[in-house]
Design brief:
- Helix content is 21%, strand content 27%.
- It has nine helices and 23 strands.
- The chain has helices at residues 2-19, 112-115, 171-184, 206-210, 213-220, 234-240, 266-281, 302-312, 340-353; strands at residues 32-34, 38-44, 50-55, 60-65, 71-77, 82-90, 94-110, 137-141, 157-160, 188-194, 250-254, 287-290, 319-322, 366-373, 376-382, 388-390, 398-401, 407-409, 411-415, 418-422, 431-434, 444-446, 455-456.
- Strands 1, 3, 4, 6, 7, 8, 9, 10, 11, 12 and 13 form an eleven-stranded mixed β-sheet that branches. Strands 14-15-20-19 form a four-stranded antiparallel β-sheet, with no helix packed on it.
- Strand 17 (398-401) and strand 18 form a beta hairpin.
- Mean pLDDT is 95; it is low at 7-17.
Amino acid sequence: MYKSLSFLIFYFFMFSLQAAIRLPSILANNMVLQQQSRVQLWGWSKPGEKVKIITSWDNNIAEVTADGNAKWYSSVQTPKAGGPYTIVFEGENKIILENVWIGEVWICSGQSNMEWNYYNGISSIKDEFSDLDKLNIKLFQVTKATSETPQDNNEGNWMVCDSNTLKNFSAVAYYFGKVLNKELNVPIGLISSNWGGTPAEVWTPAELVESNSTLKDAAAQKKPSSWWPITPGYTYNAMIAPFTNFNIAGAIWYQGESNVETAASYTQLMDTMIASWRASWRKNFPFYYVQIAPNRYLNHHVGALLREAQTKNLKTENTGMVVISDLVNDTLNIHPANKKDVGLRLANYALSETYGLNKGSYKSPIFRSFTVRKNQIVIDFDNLGSGLKIKGNEGKEIFISGADQKFYPATVEIKGKQMIVSNKRVNNPVAVRYQFSNTGIGNIFSKEGLPLAPFRTDTWPVDTSKIK
């Protein structure tokens, strides 16, 4: 009798736990919800259980019933930025979320250059610690995980940005969020979902890679690692899919170093990944990314080809690229230490393009077209601002060639908004390359101070053999 009674008590206790309302980790204390939008709230409970949701900013009561899969979904309208608020979820149990803010939410993803933080050597971020109480930034750190199928939860957590939590958080994401918080004067929520070393294939739904022969062949070339996954879709399933019900303003991305050996497919891969994320969020959100920095790789030109592929992604709607070649002082270090200016450039892009603020010149000049005039090549650019300038006495990392495909250092002259390139040894020029190497760092900028994006005017085959 005693054993039977004990079993019944245990049974009902376990049943009550299973019936309790549960929320995904992204819905928690300290979270930021996207302002002035319809945001989804969801979770799990006993099938058929009625869940009441009360939002303190309007005292609205929404009711939803869990389906046969023990899941429930609802949505609420958020007001203009503000807080803190509470959200109550009430069924057979009650959950009260506190310190909920309404503002702007961004997902920050990629590999190690997005992941790098105070403990990875970005010690300069300690200068931020004393002013963090003046900011309203909340941090969500996604737990590194993989999965063969899309998941509906990831055991991350929301944190108030302070001197302890910031040490483990993406420096680029923080600097980006800090500028947005100050300029927009609204709470900022940053979701950091990144994993050092990962190729872009793992952040893309597997079926989209596997169904495309070009992407599938490139993915098959990835070498196994003891430190990061290489299987298509694995981090998308575990580190992106759980958050696609959570409304965001946009995404910033810093990745590419692990795709240099398959740069030929990178433009298509990124277009596929961006489209898949937007489809999953059901929103054509802005996607701003960092062009990889000069670095010594094992093969000739692979870094240059990857940067070229990234530039081509600018043709995709609602994207933007920041160039950071001028922020590098050590091409042997694949992790440039200056994350502050990277975050600032991303933020200026978002402030200008997403939020309509006039931040002046925020785009690097990009090659547009060229014309051959006798022994000179005249080049025109987009995003030129008020013009170009050379830092120093002469242009660096710029070369000119005739039909023989032999490149020589070029003399550069800036005339108005055009660049004129020549070399006395090239009487009939046909092509120009600027900073088209793994480690080259140029010195041509817009007058507003942004570096000219690397480019080439030709489409000739490029040597990608091993460097001896």
